Amino acid sequence: ETLTPSLPETVVWMNAVHNTAHFEGADSKETFTKSASNVHPVVRTHPKTGRHALYLSGNFIHNFEGMTRDESLPLLQKLISHATVPANVYRHRWQQADFVVWDNRATMHYAVFDYEPGQKRTLHRTTSAGERPFRRMGQAGAT
């Protein structure tokens, strides 16, 4: 909803190819089971509110449909840079016994490696089943 007027026309109908290729390199800090690629809209519609949001992940988007990875990277970085300006970011400062919940349908999240290697941490994560991301334009909200 805060993108420049010219950018939504560029991205509103684009799809992105998501996969785990980023985590398959030898220098990756994390490892994931190799996954098949999935295609999702770059702008998704929230099923409850009808609002539109960017559906991005710098780690999981390999490329935009119809573009190579190298062609996709500048636009992906521009979108992520916009989405992560301080006005759009909540940074949680963890304390013992914190309980944090967010809506993945309208939130980007990123684990910051701000702890020492080998430091003991306990994390319990649950993910509820949800609908496949979709785009329905003409509803409340803009990109």
Structural class, from secondary structure content? alpha+beta
Quaternary form: single chain
The number of helical elements comes to: 2
Strands in their spatial order, largest beta sheet: 2-1-5
Largest sheet: 3 strands, antiparallel
Shape summary: globular
User: What Rg is obtained from the alpha carbons, in whole angstroms?
Assistant: 16 Å
Number of strands: 5
Uncertain spans: 139-143
Order of helices and strands: HEEEEEH
Helix content: 10-25%
Distance between the termini: 5 Å
Arithmetic mean of pLDDT: 82
Give the amount of beta strand, in percent. Answer: 5-15%
Can you describe this structure?
- By secondary structure, the chain is an alpha+beta fold.
- The chain is 15% helix and 13% strand.
- It is built from two helices and five strands; from the N terminus they run H-E-E-E-E-E-H.
- Strands 2-1-5 form a three-stranded antiparallel beta sheet. Strands 3-4 form a two-stranded antiparallel ribbon.
- Strand 3 (43-45) and strand 4 form a beta hairpin.
- The chain is globular, with a radius of gyration of 16 Å.
